[in-house]
Structure formats: structure tokens, C-alpha cells
């Protein structure tokens, strides 16, 4: 990954991690409403990585234990925010919610 891409995703990750205002509120509103916001678009690109990991997990290419070992903090951060969890299905993330449930980061409702 190029340096500029790394920094782009580091920025988008910092928003829910540190709850940077006003960006955190803007992200939450855009994600919840499904409205366009450049930050939300970047956030969905960030989530694509986790969807890929979930797909690899379903294919048996990476185990739950490996995913937790590598991504525990990030997965717990994603599952900490209800607006993120609520938007996953609506935005087409099919495997990530399953991964979060099977690795016990979220409990099914």
C-alpha cells in the first residue's frame, strides 16, 4: 500500500477511535442516513479490508484466531459503534457482521 493510502486510512480510523469532533458526528450521521460524505466514502473503503478478511475466513484461508490476533483492536473498535454495525448490511457488507459475531465482538440481537 502506498504511503498516501496508508495515511488516508489512518485518518479515517482515527475518527471513530478518538471520536474527533466534528468529524465523528458527521461520520455517524452520514453512515446512519446513507448520505454522501467524502469521509463516509473513505470509511467504507476502510471497511472493505475487513470484509476481505471475513471472506478469506469463510474460505478457510485465515482462521478466527489469526484474525483476532491481527485485528482485535480494529474489530473491537468497529463493534463499539452502533451506527457502524447498523450500516454494515445496508452498505452491502455481508461477511463482516458474521465475522464480528463468530469472533464474539458483537452478540446477535
Please outline the helices and strands.
Layout (H helix, E strand, L loop, with lengths): L2 H16 L4 H11 L4 H21 L5 H16 L2 H9 L4 H8 L7
Would you write up a description of this structure?
With 109 residues, this protein is mainly α. The chain has one domain. The chain has 6 helices and no strands. Helix 2 packs parallel to helix 5. The mean pLDDT is 90.
Compute the number of strand runs. Answer: 0
| Distance between the ends | 36 Å
Which class best fits the helix and strand makeup?
A: mainly alpha
> What does the largest sheet look like?
none
Ranges where pLDDT stays below 50 over 5 or more residues in a row are none
Give a quick summary of the entry.
This protein has six helices and no strands. The protein has helices at about 5-20, 25-35, 40-60, 65-80, 80-90, 95-100.
List keywords for this structure.
single chain; 109 residues; mainly alpha; 6 helices; 74% helix; globular
